[in-house]
Design a protein that fits this description.
By secondary structure, the protein is mainly alpha-helical. It contains six helices and four strands. The strands form two sheets. A two-stranded antiparallel ribbon has the order 1-2. The protein has a two-stranded antiparallel ribbon with strand order 3-4. Strand 1 and strand 2 form a beta hairpin. Helix 1 packs antiparallel against helix 4. The radius of gyration is 18 Å and the shape is globular.
Length: 180
């Protein structure tokens, strides 16, 4: 290999058959641990973002693809216990992108229901998954990851996905609260 990076050439190892697995930190972890729950939730989020990307184009598609890479970076930080030092910068970028999109939208008079069109629904699924990742992140209670501001990034990610879902919606459906 030209880049000297290890290749994954074996997927089935059977080492996880007893309910434990290894992460990039070299330690064995219970598959039911909060760390592994977060790794799994981040994987689901990345899949949801990929599915949403299939309905997008232009700048929003590029943003979602970039966010997939950032979610992978978070997974790497969780797996190694060594977060990269750039999460505050990335959080600021995401907040700016959110504000740019939101400034072009009408203010909401009521909550919206997911599903105004396919792109809207898929982005809402990713938003809900980002919220789950955030909840699991805080249950993990890893001070190194908290200090790196990864929880803050996950919070901004769900905000971004909400306004992105609104920006692609062809027929926004407002919640009609139950009345007496």
């Amino acid at each position: 290999m030209a880049n000297n990076r290890p290749r994954i050439d074996r997927v089935t190892t059977t080492s996880g058959d007893g309910g434990e697995t290894s992460l990039a930190d070299g330690k064995r972890h219970s598959k039911g641990s909060p760390r592994m729950e977060l790794v799994g939730a981040l994987d689901e989020l990345n899949c949801d973002l990929g599915l949403a990307a299939l309905t997008l184009e232009g700048a929003l598609l590029e943003q979602v693809r970039s966010l997939q890479a950032r979610v992978f970076d978070i997974g790497a930080a969780v797996a190694t216990g060594k977060p990269q030092p750039f999460w505050l910068r990335e959080t600021e970028r995401l907040a700016d992108a959110t504000e740019t999109i939101n400034s072009k939208l009408e203010a909401l008079a009521e909550f919206v229901l997911p599903g105004g069109n396919e792109a809207n629904a898929r982005l809402h699924i990713a938003r809900a998954m980002a919220r789950r990742c955030e909840r699991v992140f805080w249950r993990l209670d890893d001070s190194t990851l908290i200090k790196a501001s990864i929880g803050t990034f996950l919070n901004r990610l769900s905000d971004f996905l909400f306004v992105a879902s609104r920006s692609v919606c062809e027929d926004e459906v407002l919640w009609q609260p139950l009345k007496d």
